[in-house]
Each structure stands twice: as C-alpha cells, then as structure tokens.
Specification:
This protein is mainly alpha-helical and about 500 residues long. About 75% of the residues lie in helices and about 0% in strands. The protein has a two-stranded antiparallel ribbon with strand order 1-2. Helix 4 packs antiparallel against helix 5 and helix 9 packs across helix 10. The protein is globular. About 10% of the residues have low confidence.
Length: about 500
C-alpha cells in the first residue's frame, strides 16, 4: 500500500506536472520561433510540424518507457523523464534555427513528456490499496469462465482516477495561469522579450528538476516492479532478458483483444485524447471560421471579428474545461461498473455523441446558454473517458486471476522474475496472479493509443475541415464516441450472457 508521501508525490508531482509542462511548451513554442530564432514567416506551419514530430516520437517512446519501468521500476523512470524535460527546456531557448536545432530540442522534450504521461498510468495501480484476505480465503473466481469477480476495491481505482483527472486539469491551469504570465511580468520589469522568455524557460526547467528529485526520493520504498535481480550477467543472459522484455508488448496487445476491460481502457484512452484535440484545436478553428470568414466592411471590421472569435473560442474552451474539472471527482466517485455495464462510461460517450453533433449544428458567433450547455457536455465526455479509461486499466492490472487461466501466454515463461513469482504463488492451493509485472507496458500501450488518436484527428480532421467544412471534425469525434459506446454495451451484454450461462 502506498504511503501518504508516495501518494502526494504521485498526485502533486507526476499528475500535476505531466500535463503542465506540455501545455507550457505547446503554448510558447511559437514565441521561441519568433523571439529566440527571430523567424517571422510560416510560424503556424513550423509549429504544426514540430507538434506532429512530437507525437510521432511519442508513439514509439510511450511503450518503450513502459517496458523500461517494468524492468527498472517506475521510481527511476519517472525521475529520468522529468530530468529529460528539464534538460530540453534549457536547450529549447539555446537554439538558433528551426532545423535541425529546434526540431531536435522538441524531440528531446517529447521523450521526457511521453515518459511523464506514461508514468501517470503506470504508477496508478501501485497507489491503490491492495485487497487483503483472511487466512485460508482466496478471492472469488467464477469457476466456469475463469474471470475474476470484482469486489468493492474496484471503486478505489475509480476514486483515485477521478483525482488524477482533477490534478491533471489543475496542472493545465497551472501552466496557463502560473507559467505563461511570467514573460509578460518580466517584460514589465524592463526585461527584453527574448530574455524574458528564456528566463521563464529556466524557471520552468528548475521546477522540472525539483519534480524529478521529488519522484526519485518520494517513491523510495515503493513497490516499483523493478525486475533487476542479482545473477549471471553474461551477454547471453542480458540478451535473453532484453528479448523477454520486448515480448511484453505483443502479450499486452493480445490481452487488449482477449480481455474486454483492458481493451475498453485502450479504446477509451483513444477517445479521451481525441476529445482533448477537438476541444483545444477544432473549437477555436470552428469559431474562427464562423466569424473571420464572414463578409466584412473594411480592415477594422475584420480585426473586430477575429478578435471576437479569439475571445469566444477561449470562453468556450474554458467552460468545457471547468465542467471537466468539476466532474472529475464525480466520475471518480462512481464505482467502475454497475453490475455488468459501465454506466459512467456510457454516460460519457452519450454526452460526447450528442454534444459533438449539436455543436456542429450551432451558431457560435455569439455566446448563448444552449452553446454553453453543449460545450459543457464535451467537457463531461472528455473527463469521463479519461477517468474511466484509467480506472479500467488500473483495475485490470491488479485483478487477481487464477494462474492456470493465465498460463504462459500472459507471461514470459522463461523470465527469471516469473519463475520466482510462480514459486511464491504455488505455496497456496488456489494460487492467483495479477498483471502487475506488465503494468508499465500496459501504461505504454495506453499512452500509445492516445498519441495515435491525436495524430489521426489532427491530420484527418484537418483535411476534413478544409474539404468538407468546419463542422466535419466534430462528426468524426461523434463517430469515435459511438464506437466506444457500442464497445461498452457489447462487453456488458457479453458479461450478461456469460453470467446467465453459468447459472
């Protein structure tokens, strides 16, 4: 069980700053281009290229960080991730050109940021209190389908995931309200824009160093799932361990297909991250298209319309995020499931389905109660998918299952770690196992699904926006939510069928 210190470091360090540094860099990279490099043309295209390269690297880096945490433990990996972020923030304001210097600096940041986001999911199962059983008792297992019968402890995952969603949201606000105003404050004190931006990056880099140290020291004594053992260190032994480690990825992918709860967690991660892009990227574009493209009478009219579009887009995005923050603990309060169906996730997907359809048909040229109500549905949908995707993945990791059912397909039979685990489990007559040895890899695949969603929606949504109209990306998001809704209902119906068959 995690101590209060470890839980505090997880929420106030890992969760709070995993998104905070990302929001800060995304919001200021254009100023790095203009104020540090002094490039005045193609700023949007350059920033978009950097963001696309960031996500491409994250697709590969997230699973690898998860694998590494399974081998050396999340304590060291989390510290390394935030140390990389600190180094990249320092490098970002030393560059003198976009290619290759700024691109390389952004890719270094992507390595650290992907590590931080992966650790949010990887550490979560270790922070949830483990269930205990009295002597001679084992968890209830359905003898016919060998599936674990979930108990009240599942709500602990949802409760903590709710706080994770809350603290990540607060982290975004910290970046917007704490980090971003610093350059302006320094300029008011007489500092040049270039030096003000550089000093701000140094301040944020120092914060990242503090978080890295806090992770390494604060997680001391935690069950970090480190797989390092004393033993032979021959080349063959090391090669065998590396081979075993990389075989975790196909194992987790297979589990995502064969285990409905894990598959739903990955799919919900995809929908959650795509929703974040829809709110942060396509709502401003939609409002901008509805106002700035209107017939204008002179240059001043154009400026007035575009200024109004900026204000309305910021207000709409802000309202959606306020509702997301407010509903994070509410979604966390609800248990993971109500009997066979995940009711909170159904509510979230329904909110997204209807919300995106309605928003695509609304006039956003001015704020009105119906528009605000619809964007609140978008925020509710986003946070519901985030909280319960984390809950599903975390509860799957700690579910206790019969070792006979898991077999050697769910683990690496010749891995030294699992030989030791098997010996310990065989002491009980009805041995059970969890997937905690795969939690880092599962977290990496979870983050991979989210990064894939960002890439798909930004590129495909952008093409649809230009060719079919500004409302097209929202219909695409509606399809994503409908797909998740269908999957949730189908999995619930399958469990109903199995339960009736066992009676």
């Amino acid at each position: 069980m995690a101590t209060k210190l470890q839980l505090s470091v997880y929420l106030l360090g890992v969760c709070l700053f995993s998104i905070s540094f990302l929001v800060f860099v995304n919001a200021t990279v254009s100023f790095v281009i203009t104020d540090i490099i002094h490039q005045r043309k193609d700023i949007g295209d350059t920033a978009g290229t950097l963001g696309f390269a960031d996500e491409l690297l994250a697709l590969v880096a997230c699973p690898l960080w998860g694998l590494l945490s399974d081998r050396i433990g999340f304590r060291l990996v989390a510290g390394i991730g935030y140390a990389i972020i600190a180094a990249s923030l320092f490098i970002l304001v030393q560059v003198t050109n976009v290619y290759p210097q700024l691109l390389l600096a952004r890719l270094i940041f992507s390595l650290g940021a992907s590590c931080a986001s992966t650790m949010v999911t990887a550490i979560l199962p270790s922070m949830v209190p483990k269930t205990t059983s009295t002597a001679g008792q084992q968890p209830s297992i359905n003898s016919r389908n060998q599936s674990p019968v979930r108990g009240p402890h599942d709500s602990s995952h949802a409760h903590l995931a709710g706080f994770v969603g809350l603290f990540t949201g607060v982290g975004a606000l910290l970046a917007l309200g704490g980090f971003l105003p610093i350059p302006n404050q320094l300029q008011r004190a007489g500092v040049t824009p270039e030096k003000a931006l550089a000093d701000t990056y140094y301040i944020v880099a120092a914060t990242a160093i503090i978080v890295a140290v806090a992770c390494y020291c604060g997680f001391g004594g935690a069950a970090t799932t480190s797989s390092i053992r004393s033993g032979p260190t021959s080349v063959r032994s090391v090669a065998q361990r590396v081979s075993n480690t990389f075989s975790y990825i196909p194992t987790v992918l297979k589990l995502g297909v064969t285990q409905p709860s894990l598959g739903l967690g990955f799919l919900a991660s995809f929908v959650a991250r795509s929703s974040s892009v829809g709110i942060s990227l396509f709502i401003p574009l939609y409002v901008n298209a509805s106002l700035c493209d209107k017939p204008a009478h002179g240059v001043e009219d154009v400026k007035a319309h575009c200024r109004k579009a900026y204000v309305i887009a910021a207000q709409l995005s802000g309202v959606s995020q306020v509702f997301a923050l407010a509903f994070a603990p509410i979604f966390g309060y609800f248990p993971l499931r109500h009997r066979h169906f995940n009711i909170p996730l159904i509510v979230a997907t329904l909110s997204g389905t209807f919300g995106y359809i309605l928003f695509a048909r609304m006039n956003t040229s001015k704020l009105s109660p119906p528009v605000l109500a619809v964007v609140s549905l978008l925020g509710i949908s986003q946070i519901g998918s985030i909280v319960h995707s984390l809950s599903l993945v975390s509860s799957f990791v700690t579910e206790r299952r019969p070792t006979k059912q898991a077999g050697t397909n769910d683990a690496i039979a010749d891995d030294d770690d699992h030989e030791e685990t098997t010996r310990l489990l065989n002491r009980n007559k009805e041995a059970v196992k969890t997937h905690e040895h795969l939690k880092g890899t599962i977290a990496g695949v979870y983050s991979f699904a989210g990064s894939l969603a960002i890439l798909i929606l930004t590129k495909l949504g952008g093409v649809l926006f230009d060719r079919l109209g500004p409302e097209a990306p929202f219909y695409l998001l509606c399809i994503f939510n409908l797909g998740l809704l269908f999957a949730v209902v189908a999995c619930g119906a399958l469990e109903v069928y199995k339960s009736r068959g066992c009676q």
